[in-house]
Amino acid sequence: xxxxxxxxxxxxxxxxxxxxxxxxxxxxxxxxxxxxxxxxxxxxxxxxxxxxxxxxxxxxxxxxxxxxxxxxxxxxxxxxxxxxxxxxxxxxxxxxxxxxxxxxxxxxxxxxxxxxxxxxxxxxxxxxxxxxxxxxxxxxxxxxxxxxxxxxxxxxxxxxxxxxxxxxxxxxxxxxxxxxxxxxxxxxxxxxxxxxxxxxxxxxxxxxxxxxxxxxxxxxxxxxxxxxxxxxxxxxxxxxxxxxxxxxxxxxx
Length: 253
Ligand code: PGA
Prior knowledge:
CATH superfamily: Aldolase class I
Shape: globular
Number of strands: 8
Order of helices and strands: EHEHEHEHHEHHHEHHEHEH
Bound molecules: 2-phosphoglycolic acid
């Protein structure tokens, strides 16, 4: 059975105190409201990882992720953080290929392929982001564009390693804009990606792959998005910074 996952991407937000408060609230609500069968992944900035992990403790169903990792194993790369270091702090997931990293930090498909390999080699689950710009959507080439992102960064993986990857479809025009893709637009792309995965790795692996939607998801639209057969959860930015909103999204299946 493929996993339902709601991941919060804090981006470059939250001071230490704010992060601690947000995490405690989320952990308490998750427990008090007896949430089951949905994995929650908190992806704070690097310095929060250890204290957030401590607060989460052994709460079943809540995991800690990073927003990036290096493509290198170790060594003289000032300012970088390796997958191995993250794993040693008990991190389980890592977001890779977010459109902000692709755009502002010029991360290429090839670099992302190397990061994905590092993550998997160190036991982290990559949340691999893909998605098209408004220009590409308007031109009507969005499906082939997003499929190519998967082919270029993931399709060198063995079937066993590919099975460890989570996909997040995030149309760039919907990120932080308040303009969500409709549930039908999300379903259409998720189904296309699943077919694409099946063409390379077979139906069984494709059916087991969790494909999350991201881009202005909120408590008001999550139910409809998550009701679609190929939408297995969400990667949440803005709404993950408010505990009530985030937990309401988690409860939207
Ligand atoms: P948003 O961000 O929910 O604020 O649109 C999503 C993301 O960038 O992961």
